[in-house]
Structure formats: C-alpha cells, structure tokens
Amino acid sequence: METIKISRATLEDIPTLTRVMEKTFRAEADMLLGKDTTDSDSNILPPGFDSVSANEYMWRELDYYKVSQNQELIGGIIVTITGRQYGRIDRIFINPEYQGAGIGSYAMKHVEALYPNVRLWDLETSARQLSNHHFYEKLGFKRVFETEEEISYVKRIGDVDGTHLVKVNQQLSNSSFEQSDLNNTSFYQSTLSQVAFSNSSLFQAHFTNCNMEQTRFQNINLRSTLFADLNISGSTFNQVTASNLQIENTDLTGTAITNCTVKDVSIEGESLTGLSINGISVEELLKVYQNTK
Questions:
Q1: Residue 69 forms beta bridges with which residues?
Q2: Which CATH number is 99's domain given?
Q3: Residue 82 counted as domain residue
Q4: Which domain, by its residues, includes 149?
Q5: Which of 22, 168, 171, 209 is most buried, judged by most C-beta within 10 A?
Q6: Cα 6–4–56 angle (5° rounding)?
Q7: Which residues does residue 79 pair with via DSSP β-bridges, in sequence order?
Q8: Is residue 7 within a helix (H) or strand (E), and if so which, with residue range?
Q9: Which keywords describe this protein according to UniProt (predicted)?
Q10: How far apart are CA 221 and CA 201, in angstroms?
Q11: Residue 132 forms part of a structural domain
Q12: pLDDT at position 199, please?
C-alpha cells in the first residue's frame, strides 16, 4: 500500500471531499439501486452526501477526517464522540478507484486509535450493502439489530469490568433524583421513556442518535443551542422566542407560520414554490416586482 495519511480535514478540503463522497455513494447506488430508481435508501444515499454546505456542517460540528494518498484526497471518515466513552461512525467513504486495497480498514483502525477512551463504537448500514457487512464484521463489529432495510452494528473495546464505572442492566425505573450531581454522565442504549427533568441544569448536554418522539420542552432556556440532523416533522412551536434564529439547509415543505412576528426576517437563495403570505403567492409577487423594475 502506498503512503496513506489520515488527518483532520480543513474547510478548504470540503469541496473536494464532497465530490469524493458523492462519487463513492452514487457508485454504490448505481450498483444496488439502479440509475433510474426512485428508491431512497438513506444509508446508501445519506442526507447531504452531495452538498458542500452539509459537509461544512459536519466538518464544523463533528470530527471529520480526510484520507489522502500521496497528497491526493481519496476519502474521508466522519465520527461523533458522545461523552467520554461512546463513538459513532457517521460516514466512511473511499473513492471507488482506490477500494479493495485495505485503505478503509486502515482508516477505521487509525481513527479508533485516536480515541483510546472510547470503549464502544456503533454504526448503521443498509441491509443491501453486503460488502459493508463483511467489512465491518472483519473489523470486529457485531450485529445488534436488523430490519429488512437496515443493520445496526456495535464494537466493544475491552471488557465491561468496572474500570470505566460502567453500570450495565441497571433497573432504575420510577426512581427520583433530587439535588443530585450527574455531571459527565453518559447513557447508551438506555430506556428513558417518560423521563422528566425539572428545575435542572442540562448545560452543554449532548443528545445524538436518540428517539425523542413526542417529547415536550416547556419553559426551557435553549439559547445558542444547536439543532441539526433532526426529524421534527409534525412538531409544534408555540410561544417561542427565536430572535436571531438561523435556519440553514432545512426542508420546510408544508410548514405553517401563524400569528408570528417576522420583522427583519430574510429568505435568500431558496425554492419559494407554493410559498404564500396571507394567501398571496410570493412567486407571483416576485414576478410583478421583476416586471416593474
């Protein structure tokens, strides 16, 4: 194998890495889904795989590494580190022209070594990606859940022996904690349905890959909070202060904004098809404006 280097991606690398990611995932989709298919498998063609802005978000908020061979960018690996001990492989992609030479395995092992405190890694892949199943299982990942569409893998580093103060299979249902110090506590594959937090500090809490369907947030300070890579379809925002809110790369199809103050709000570079204000088509308003200029 020629000299392979794994290092942190820079912002200047993102356009090239986006092209490599798109090439990699489209080649996989062409092989498994067909070029003319309308099938949308989000593991084969993940959201934002061909978007520079989406990759800039991942570079900014996640741990984004580039894979280079003789100074040529040939792939990348993106991970999320939650707490001290949990890591997630969000994406790994190697230019199809360079696959089959062990580069992906080298990149995975190298990134694992960068986080010696992480004792558990997880990831998901499409049930159709048989080559991925072999690849991950060869690296020590075990299947923990699978459906007809998706397979979830976990890799544990070392034994659960108390060294990391890990509590496994604890039954704490119906417990109450008052004036308790839970700083730096991590929850993994834990059931927290109907959990309630009141008059508590969740400063810099990190929620990732969690099901929070039908969760209620009321009388909460969420200033300067990041909401990204979420599905909030059907959700309701009522009595919310959102001054200086930034909404980027977001699908708002079918959204209704009612009785809201939109002073100084700007909409730029977006598709306005079907957008109306007080029943008036914005597209038609813009056409009239352009014709009168």
A1: 4, 72
A2: 3.40.630.30
A3: yes
A4: 4-156
A5: 22
A6: 35
A7: 63, 89
A8: strand 4-8
A9: Transferase
A10: 10
A11: yes
A12: 79
Q: Which residues contact 156 (CB under 8 A, 6 or more apart)?
A: 119, 120
Strands 150-156 and 142-146: antiparallel
pTM here? Answer: 0.76
Token pair recorded at residue 92? 């790994």
Give the pLDDT of residue 79: 97
Residues contacting 75, CB < 8 A, separation 6+? 20, 24, 66, 67, 92, 93, 94, 95, 98, 103, 104, 107
- State which H helix or E strand residue 155 sits in: strand 150-156
Token pair for 78: 């993106």
Instruction: Tell me how far apart the alpha carbons of residues 293 and 290 are, in angstroms, rounded to a whole number.
Output: 5
Give the torsion through C-alpha atoms of 236, 241, 245, 248, to 10 deg: 0
- What confidence score (pLDDT) does residue 247 get? 83
For 123, counting Cβ atoms within 10 Å of its Cβ (0-12 exposed, 13-18 middle, 19+ buried), the class is buried
Tens of pLDDT along 16-53?
A: 999 999 999 999 999 988 865 555 688 899 988 999 99
pLDDT digit string (tens) for 191-209? Answer: 888 888 887 888 888 888 7
pLDDT tens readout for residues 251-266: 888 888 888 888 888 8
Distance CA 175, CA 195 (A): 10
**What is the spatial distance between Cα 283 and Cα 274, in angstroms, rounded to a whole number?**
8
Q: For residues 131 and 199, is the Cβ–Cβ distance under 8 A?
A: no
CA dist., res. 148 & res. 125, Å (int): 11
